[in-house]
Amino acid sequence: MGNFYHLEMEFIQRTLALLDQYDGLKESFPFEQQYNHTLLTNCLLGLVVLPKEKIFEHIPDQPLHTLLDYGIVESYINPDLANTKIFFRRLRNAVAHFGIEFISDTPDYFIDRIRFTDAVGGVLIAEFTAAEFPVFIKFFAYTLLENMAQVG
What we know:
Layout: H1 7-25, H2 36-49, H3 53-57, E1 76-77, H4 84-96, E2 100-103, E3 113-118, E4 123-129, H5 133-151
Antiparallel strand pairs: 1-4, 2-3, 3-4
Helix pairs in contact: 1-2, 1-5, 2-4, 2-5
C-alpha cells in the first residue's frame, strides 16, 4: 500500500475497497468473528470526520426521498431534516459524538438496527436496518466522491 496522493479522495476510495474486500473474506471466519457492524461503523466514522468541510458544502440539497433510489427503503430517516445536505451534516454530528446505538430485536443479541442520535437536542437522525446500513455507507461514500470531483 502506497502513500496518499490526494488524501480525502483516496481515503474514500480505499474505504470502499476495504468494504468490498471484507465482503469477500468474511465468510472465511466463524460467524462470531465476523465484525460487520464494527467495520461499517469505523468506515462511517472515517468518512464523516476525514473529509474537509468544503466537501460538505458542495453536497446538493436533494430531497430525502432520493435515498430510496439507492435502496434505503426500510430504514428510518428523520423527515424533519429538509434535505440530504442537512441529513448528512446531522449524521456527521451524531457519529462524531458517538450518538450510535446498536439494537437487537431478539434475545440472541444480533444487531438488527443501528440508531443515530444527534447529541444536540437528542434528535433521532436515522435508524438503519442491518441490511441497509452497508448500502447507505456506500451511497454516502459515492456521494462524497461525486462532490469532490465537482469541487476539484
